[in-house]
Design goal:
heterodimer, A: 234 residues, mainly beta, five-stranded mixed β-sheet, 3 helices, 10 strands, disordered N terminus, disordered C terminus, B: 204 residues, mainly alpha, two-stranded antiparallel ribbon, 8 helices, 3% strand, elongated
């Protein structure tokens, strides 16, 4: 299903900071801290060559008019510390395969040029402000052989310092229970913390679905070792 | 104000801890087949019960102040009365964690046994043709036969033991283990990384 996106709507999306109502997230009364978002393997397909377009809109590459194939999703959330404080100036990166199950990484895409969706950016980046909120526009992830659970890879960094690498899964997707990694979480709470609801959005010209995913990071940014955000290759 | 709250919370925690000691200990049942499984469900319930702010032994929706867990709350509320009891949590855990340790039909049950040349997920990833798969199978057979000739009987028995007891780890699918910079479960840079899944061995 193709959605026609005008460049004007896209600019509105990128500049729009109306993130919507933030849900409360506080620890239980007898827990000292929020449950941390569990980490999960980075996998082999973190991009080896960064795309020219690394913004938070993975549906449109640069000034292309044709959007990516797939169910367009507004992915929002907040990055918080374990005591609930929003984390500012934190970089969130997401990467995932396109609707035809091809990753941007050359190890995957170089042999699949005929099926790769060139209009899918494959990787995106966002830096949080004082509210800790982040926003991406991407596609709902799809399953591929060996990974029956569709997922989006997520990395959280402060400057060059990695705070968390994990994967986000689709709540209610049948294939999840067949996925070895999905089943490798410590318990049901940890599993739940990696799940996002992909809900239909009504009357939107820019997205068909929305998903909310709050991230709680245990490793706090060390202010004394803060580096300015260099344009690193990794 | 914040320090006052901390003091209040700490003192109520101490009070609660002393009250809890008076209750029957939460222990896996004697003679239970899978003590590790029971310990995991006990831990899950304990983690959820940290939201029981009025200490009535059950959870109401507004007690669950972490929005990320509201879906879990709704799913575990079997009778849909807006309250989740420990029994409901136990039932929910037993139902949902069936796949949690073992991996499902399509997911490997654990890392491939030592000596498996190309586990099935890797074969899928490489998109081996059926002719190639046959050749790899033949190679595997040759390898198994040669290894048998090299090892002593005792070593073969030991290898079987090792294969059976090998802890679960990252699955043999497309993804490889995280680089060291990722946060490890409870480990320091000097400690060995703990597997994501509980080890497949009887608990002490």
């Amino acid at each position: 299903m193709t959605v026609q996106i005008s460049p004007l709507s896209r600019r509105m999306f990128l500049q729009n900071i109306a993130f919507g109502t933030a849900l409360f997230t506080t620890p239980g009364l007898f827990a000292e801290q929020l449950f941390e978002t569990p980490s999960m393997t980075e996998g082999p397909f973190y991009p080896d060559k960064m795309p020219l377009d690394m913004d938070n809109d993975l549906i449109i590459v640069n000034d292309h008019l044709t959007p990516a194939i797939g169910e367009i999703t507004n992915l929002t959330g907040r990055v918080l510390g374990v005591n609930g404080t929003p984390l500012k100036d934190v970089t969130i990166e997401i990467w995932q395969c396109d609707a035809n199950a091809v990753y941007l990484h050359t190890a995957d895409s170089s042999r699949k040029k005929d099926t790769q969706d060139r209009n899918f950016q494959g990787f995106g980046r966002f830096v949080t402000g004082s509210t800790g909120e982040y926003r991406f526009r991407t596609i709902k992830p799809v399953a591929y052989p060996g990974r029956p659970a569709p997922h989006i890879h997520v990395k959280v960094k402060k400057g060059d310092r990695e705070l968390l690498t994990t994967q986000l899964f689709v709540r209610g997707y049948e294939g999840n229970i067949k996925d070895g990694l999905f089943n490798s979480t410590r318990d049901l709470i940890d599993r739940e913390l990696l799940l996002a609801d992909f809900k239909p959005v009504k009357d939107s010209k820019v997205a068909q679905l929305s998903a909310h995913f709050d991230i709680v990071v245990g490793r706090t940014p060390d202010e004394t070792s803060f580096h300015t955000d260099r344009d690193s290759r990794r | 104000m914040r320090s006052l709250v901390t003091v209040m919370l700490t003192s109520s925690l101490i009070l609660t801890a002393s009250m809890v000691r008076g209750q029957p200990p939460v222990r896996p049942e004697e003679g239970s087949k899978d003590k590790r499984f029971d310990a995991a469900s006990v831990s899950f319930i304990a983690r959820m019960m940290t939201f029981d702010s009025n200490q009535d032994g059950k959870l109401s929706k507004d007690e669950v102040t972490d929005a990320r867990l509201l879906n879990l709350f709704t799913d575990s509320d079997a009778d849909k009365d807006g309250v989740v009891t420990k029994e409901e949590l136990t039932t929910y855990y037993n139902k949902e964690s069936v796949n949690l340790r073992r991996g499902g039909p399509d997911g490997p049950g654990g890392p491939p046994p030592f000596g498996e040349l190309l586990p099935p997920p890797v074969r899928d990833m490489l998109r081996l043709s059926s002719a190639q798969r046959k050749k790899v199978d033949a190679l595997q057979k040759q390898f198994d036969v040669k290894l048998e000739q090299i090892l002593t009987e005792e070593q073969k028995t030991q290898l079987d033991e090792i294969r059976r007891r090998r802890p679960g780890g990252p699955e043999g699918d497309r993804d490889r283990p995280s680089p060291p910079s990722d946060r490890e479960r409870g480990g320091t840079p000097d400690e060995p990384r703990r597997p994501l899944r509980a080890p497949e061995k009887p608990s002490e």
